[in-house]
Each structure stands twice: as structure tokens, then as C-alpha cells.
Amino acid sequence: MQTQAAAALVRTVELSRPTDVHRTLSPLRRGPRDPAFVRTVDGAVWRATLLRSGPTTVRLHQTGPSTVHVSAWGDGAEEALDRAPAMLGEHDDDAGLDPPPGTVRDALRRSAHVRIPRTDLVLEALVPAVLEQRVITRTAQDAWRWLVRAHGTPAPGPAPEGMHVPPSAAAWASVPVWDFHRAGVDPARARAVVAAARVAGRLEESVDMPVAETWRRLLTIPGIGPWTAAETTQRALGDADAVSVGDFHLPNQVGHALVGRRVDDDGMLALLEPYRPHRYRVIRALLLTGVARAPRFGPRLAVEDHRRR
Predict the structure, then answer these.
(1) Domains in the chain and their CATH numbers?
(2) Which residues of 175-190 are buried (b: 16+ CB within 10 A; e: fewer)?
């Protein structure tokens, strides 16, 4: 356990509908050894995060279909409690989505208690998305874990051993080149992280604006493209329509789920168009229920180690 801080602030959150907390929050976890996201044997979810009011550790324990016991420690504890309903998908609105009988309708029914979380933390969602560009998932997760532990801060309160709050924007902007190298991050991705950190203020203020403005600001950053922007707004803004165009596997998965064959990005977007503005919601339902499982074409990507270059 980490060093104890002040006593926890506690709140019971009553959601407006049954919610599967574990699957709702799963996109916020960056691998099984994420130092900022831990699931403990008692079923609780722990998150370490940096809010406007300061670092905090949050423990979320579901005690009923729509009841979640939330505890928080650290300078940002009160803010964390206020943000908890949005993070649990309370403001996620699936109104108007009524697909005809078939694959999509069945997948949505089977994942009916899964919400789209919203953290309102753009940089926190953006950095790991940048690290995931053009590499296999394990490589990105290892880099995230190494950098958070090296440049973040220990999670406040009785957090599980090893939990860390992700670095601040200033800390990300100050990560030396050799530390990115030690984490296995190539120069292009390192430059994108630093560039994003330097304009973090403008990114964070956009959460109170239309999602299109967040997209516009993200796409002005060198090294940030549509895939990274979508991965970011899905988590930070609960963007139910953001499609990760440019993903290596996603078009294949969506194509096989909906028409039984491989498609490219344009084909995937055409198939998803009837479900706008819920395209990400549909994708997630297809993936969660296993409908989008499809054969993978091409050679398996090798683990790249940029530290040897």
C-alpha cells in the first residue's frame, strides 16, 4: 500500500439506469499492468488521475445494478467525486439509436448495461493514444507504464502498491529524449507527446466546447491524426460517434461483423453511416460481444525495440 494521506471523501452514486461498471470503465485501462488503473480482488476499480484541483486516487465499487460506492483521496478528491457520474457514463445518451433486427441490434442488447465513460481529461487520454500509434499494443502499454512510473507521482491514499498519478502537462513536456528512448518510444511519437503537452491548456479548455472544436485543436498538433483524435475523444469526451479511422484491424472486424467480409476504411464508414451519431457505440458493442471477431490478414507485427537504434 502507498503512504496514507488524509481520510477519504466518500459518496454513493445512484445512476439512472443499470450499469456494468467494469466494462464501462475498461477503455480507460491501458493494459493489465497500468499503474493508473487497477482492479482488485474485491471487484473494486482504482484510478489514479490528475485533476484541475490536484492529484487523486479514486476507488469505485459497484454495490448494486445502478449503485456505486466511490471513495477518493488527495487534493482532487472532491472534484473526483463530482466527476464520478460522468466517468461512469451517466451522461451518455443513446436516444434515437433503434437499429432493425439483426447483428447490431443483438450486440447492443447484449451490451445494454455498458456506457461510454467521459473523463473530461484530454491530455490523459491523448498521451497513451499517441504511444499506441503504429506499434503493437504491448509495446505501447509498456511505454505508458514506464513513463508514468518514471515521471508521475505516487497515488495518494491507500492505493494498491505501485499506483501512480500520470504526469502533468509540464512534466510530459519536460521528459528528456533519452527517457522516451528508454521507454521504447521513437522520436516521432515522443515529439507528438511533447507538442501536445505544450498546448495542454487549450486542449483541456475545449471540453466545455462542441466536440468538433476539440477535434480541430487536436488535429493542429504535429503527429496527431484522425485515429489518435478519435481514441482521445472517445474517452475524454464520451464521444459516441468517434470512429478510429486508420486502425490496422478495425475495418476487418467491422466488415466481417456486418457483411461477412473484409473492408477498408471507406467501406467501414459506409457500413456505419446509418448509425450516426452512435458509430463508436455500435463498434464497441460489436467488439464487446465478440461479433466483430474476424480473421487477421497479413504478417503478425513484430515487437519493435527503438532502444536498439
Answers:
(1) 9-97 (3.30.310.20), 122-236 (1.10.340.30)
(2) beeeebeebbbbeebb
| Chain Cα centroid distance, residue 224 | 16
C-alpha to C-alpha distance for 181 and 113, rounded to whole angstroms: 41
CA angle, corner 255, sides to 250 and 260, nearest 5?
140
pLDDT digits (tens, 9 = 90+) for 186-225: 999 999 999 999 999 999 999 999 999 999 999 999 999 9
Is pLDDT above 90 for 301? Answer: no
**Cell numbers standing for residue 66:** 445502478
Q: Classify residue 195 as left (phi > 0), alpha (psi -120 to 50) or beta.
A: alpha
| Phi, psi angles (nearest 5°) of residue 209 | -115, 170
Q: List pLDDT tens digits, range 28-81.
A: 999 999 999 999 999 999 999 999 999 999 999 999 999 999 999 999 999 999
**Nearest-CA neighbor of 237 among 96, 80, 125?**
125
Sheet holding 45-51, edge to edge: 9-14, 67-73, 54-64, 45-51, 37-39
| Strand ranges in the chain using DSSP code E only, listed in sequence order | 9-14, 37-39, 45-51, 54-64, 67-73, 153-154, 164-165
Phi, psi of 149 (to 5 degrees): -70, -35
Average pLDDT of the residues of the chain: 94
